[in-house]
Design a protein that fits this description.
CATH topology: Pnp Oxidase, Chain A
CATH class: Mainly Beta
Number of domains: 1
Radius of gyration: 17 Å
Structural class: alpha+beta
Helix content: 10-25%
Distance between the termini: 39 Å
Strand content: 35-45%
Shape: globular
Oligomer: single chain
Length: 162
């Protein structure tokens, strides 16, 4: 008997839900590969969107995940928080597979990215210009939406960032 894929055809509702989760996210779980051990490492980061819709963050050189991303930019982000009631696994969540790129000060686009990020994260103005802090852009390579029980979808970067 052939097995049935649990992944549903991606439709407009799935695309809208994925974009809404990404747009509302103020933080994300970030998964990286620890350089010294090759083991997965997960942490929580502040998350925003660049003017073009790409996920971005502001990270410190003091953080283990920053060193991990410098060694290997492949990473994953998880957005979507469980609601206050019910089984957390019934609430929608979006996993993004991505490659992180550091945005150096003085490079084209840095000032616009800084201004846009700080508009959504005003408290970050306190430390955004410290020498050990850097902006990251996440180039999404794939999206995996779990819209709740029995509602799994795969999304392309174009579907997520449209």
């Amino acid at each position: 008997m052939p097995s049935r894929s649990p992944i549903l055809p991606t439709d407009d509702d799935a695309r809208a839900l994925a974009r809404a989760l990404l747009t509302r996210a103020q933080s994300a779980a970030l998964a990286v590969i620890e350089p010294a051990t090759g083991a997965p490492f997960v942490t929580r980061i502040a998350l925003g969107l660049a003017p073009d819709g790409a996920p971005v963050s502001l990270v410190s050189d003091l953080a283990a995940h920053t060193a991990a991303l410098r060694a290997n930019p492949a990473c994953s982000l998880l957005v979507g928080d469980p609601g206050p009631k019910g089984d957390p696994l019934t609430h929608p969540r979006l996993t993004l597979q991505a490659r992180a790129a550091f945005v150096a000060r003085g490079t084209p686009g840095h000032a616009a990215l800084r201004a846009h990020y700080l508009a959504g994260h005003p408290k970050a103005k306190l430390y955004a210009d410290f020498a050990d802090f850097h902006f990251l852009r996440f180039a999404v390579t794939a999206g995996h939406l779990n819209g709740g029980f029995g509602r799994a979808f795969r999304l392309t970067p174009e579907e997520l960032l449209a």
